[in-house]
Each structure stands twice: as structure tokens, then as C-alpha cells.
Write a structure and sequence with these properties.
The complex is a heterodimer of chains A (85) and B (149). Chain A has 85 residues and is of the alpha+beta class. Chain A is built from 3 helices and 5 strands, in the order E-H-E-H-H-E-E-E. The longest helix of chain A has 9 residues. Helix content of chain B is 34%, strand content 37%. Chain B has 4 helices and 8 strands. The chains are: A alpha+beta (85), B alpha+beta (149).
Chain lengths: 85, 149
């Protein structure tokens, strides 16, 4: 399984905080971009929300580019630019 | 070099943090920064809510403090960030740095805040009489972080 988390405005717009994907639906060398593409195909709303240019991605709690490889058991997160401090 | 990172609902005492930072006789400089909830220009901010990514937030703050230590000779770095519901003028964030000399302490404190603003997974939502709004990221914060190279 691959765990996917959403935060802040994105979580609210998707009405989803977390979900799990069956990793067998991805190729061995799947990337975070492959997972994102899979999620975008869920609906027009998901397509729109997950196509924002400023979307940030973390794999196993580390900020990383979308070409980062994803393995079974990994935790992915997608979220808007951060605004702490 | 000691690094302390705390993500918490509770308020913090700057005086206590300062005392903890000023224990090391090799450090002749302590710089602290405290961020507060700022009122909106309309003057009707009722509440600000801080969301975070549990686990990643603590790791990100620790990594920022560790990077500051690589760039400057530091005795201690303490970072506290609050989460949950806050009201105007409440404390949100504390960054404290102890070093042998002031230049490193000033620079490292600024560096930690600039990186925290753009790399630590926190999100602010403002609640006012106009409704709820997620705070948008600022280009100026991104520019401030990028100047450190």
C-alpha cells in the first residue's frame, strides 16, 4: 500500500485527509508524479485541485520533486505552499 | 551544539527560553525572535488556526536547525512553534540562537526563520467576520529564503 495525505486548503477542497492506494496498480519504478496522475484521474475536481502549479510534495516526510521514486509502504503527502512562522 | 524543537498547543515563556539559551559560558551572544498573531488590516481577526503535518514538521525544523549549525558555529538552537487556535497578539513562534559572537547568532536566527517560513509544513487559516481564509504564501518569504543560497 501507499499512504497519501493531504493538508490545509487542499485537504478541505478534496474533502479527504488521507487515503491508501494499492501499490500493485503502479509500476515498479513509479514516481510521485505517477501517483499524482492516478489521483487526478479520479474526478474533474481532483484533476483541477491536483494540477496547481504551486502544489508541494513530500515522500516519507521529506519535501521532494515529483520525479522522486515511490515504493510500497511509502507515505506521500501533497499540500499547498507552507505559511507558518 | 544542542537543538531543541517543540511543536505544541501551549504558549511558551520567552524568559525561560532565554535562560535555557544563556547557560553556556562559551556563548557570548543570544538572539531570540518571537512571532505574534498579527491583526488583519480590517481589524476583525477573531482567530487564527495553525495546521501542521505531524512528524514531518518536527523533522523539518530539526533539519533547519542542523543546517544553521553547519553554516555558523552555534552553541544552541531552540525552535518552538504553536499549533491550533490562536487569537490576535498571541505568540506563534520562537527562535533562539546562542553563539560565541553576535554576527553568527543574528544571521542564524534570521536564516532559521526564513527557512521555517518556506520549508516547515505549517498552514495558517484566518477566521474573521468575513469568514475563513487560508493565508496565501508570500513571494517575499520565498525571496528571503533564497538569498541564503
Amino acid at each position: 500500500m501507499i499512504k497519501v495525505l493531504f493538508f490545509a486548503a487542499l485537504r478541505e477542497r478534496l474533502n479527504t485527509a488521507a487515503l491508501e492506494l494499492d501499490s500493485s496498480s503502479f509500476e515498479r519504478d513509479a514516481s510521485a508524479a505517477s501517483v499524482l496522475k492516478h489521483l487526478q484521474s479520479r474526478s474533474a475536481d481532483w484533476q483541477q485541485e491536483l494540477s496547481r502549479q504551486d502544489l508541494l510534495c513530500a515522500v516519507n516526510q521529506q519535501l521532494c520533486p515529483l520525479h522522486t521514486k515511490v515504493n510500497p509502504g511509502d507515505e506521500l503527502a501533497f499540500f499547498p505552499p507552507v505559511t507558518g512562522g | 551544539m544542542s537543538i531543541v524543537v517543540q511543536v505544541q498547543n501551549e504558549d511558551f515563556c520567552v524568559g525561560t527560553q532565554y535562560q535555557l539559551l544563556s547557560q553556556d559560558s562559551r556563548c557570548g551572544a543570544v538572539v531570540t525572535f518571537t512571532g505574534l498573531v498579527r491583526e488583519l488590516s480590517s481589524g476583525d481577526l477573531q482567530q487564527m488556526t495553525l495546521e501542521h503535518y505531524p512528524g514531518m514538521t518536527e523533522q523539518a525544523l530539526h533539519a533547519i536547525a542542523a543546517e544553521a549549525q553547519q553554516r555558523w558555529q552555534l552553541g544552541a538552537v531552540r525552535i518552538i512553534h504553536r499549533i491550533g487556535a490562536l487569537t490576535p497578539n498571541e505568540q506563534i513562534v520562537f527562535v533562539g540562537v546562542a553563539s560565541a559572537h553576535r554576527a553568527a547568532a543574528f544571521a542564524a536566527a534570521q536564516f532559521v526563520m526564513d527557512y521555517l517560513k518556506t520549508r516547515a509544513p505549517f498552514w495558517k487559516k484566518e477566521q474573521s467576520s468575513q469568514g475563513e481564509t487560508w493565508v496565501a504564501a508570500k513571494t517575499s518569504d520565498q525571496d528571503a529564503a533564497e538569498r541564503w543560497g
